[in-house]
UniProtKB/TrEMBL annotation:
Pfam families documented for this protein: Acetyltransf_1
Similarity comment text for this entry: Belongs to the acetyltransferase family. RimI subfamily.
Keyword Isomerase tagged: no
Protein name as annotated: Ribosomal-protein-alanine N-acetyltransferase
Length: 162
């Protein structure tokens, strides 16, 4: 991977975030309004990774007191499998630790095996399921379960920090 740069995301990057979100999140991509609201939200952490001048990955999270929720994480298709998701999750955990957040929660589509594997490697455990939470990803019409997971921030740092 070329030299990468980790930045705090700002509204000036909205066009790049929209394009990346459409590629990375597909049916779960956020609208411009949702992204702008996230970028303006107090107690949020919004991180992007650039390779050269291209935004190739992002993570959005919000926190309150000692708990945080990972809202979205994504990478461009060409960067999948490169370790960028791990780098984003580690950068998020480092910033959460600086804010004295001790627990990170998330939900993920039950069919997203790559994300589930990353989260398990990062020390997350399954807390439950939300039956039929996500809209059908295809014409089948069957809704998809959300897998609820959480981890101590310290476990994420230990598991991914190498």
């Amino acid at each position: 991977m070329d030299v990468k740069r980790v930045v705090t995301l700002t509204e000036e990057l909205l066009p790049q975030l929209l394009a990346l979100g459409a590629d990375a999140m597909q049916e779960d991509a956020w609208s411009a309004t949702q992204i702008a609201q996230q970028l303006a939200r107090p107690r949020s952490i919004n991180i992007g990774v650039f390779v050269e001048a291209q935004l190739v990955g992002f993570v959005f999270a919000t926190y309150l007191f000692d708990e945080a929720e990972l809202l979205q994480i994504g990478t461009t298709g060409s960067m999948r499998g490169s370790g960028l998701g791990k780098a984003l999750l580690l950068a998020l955990a480092e910033r959460l630790q600086a804010e004295e957040v001790t627990r990170l929660m998330l939900e993920v589509r039950s069919s997203n095996t790559a994300a589930l594997a990353l989260y398990q490697r990062a020390g997350f455990a399954q807390d439950g399921r939300r039956k039929g939470y996500y809209a059908a990803p295809n014409e089948s019409g069957e809704r998809e379960d959300a897998v609820l997971m959480s981890s101590p921030v310290s476990a994420v740092l230990t598991s991914l920090g190498n």
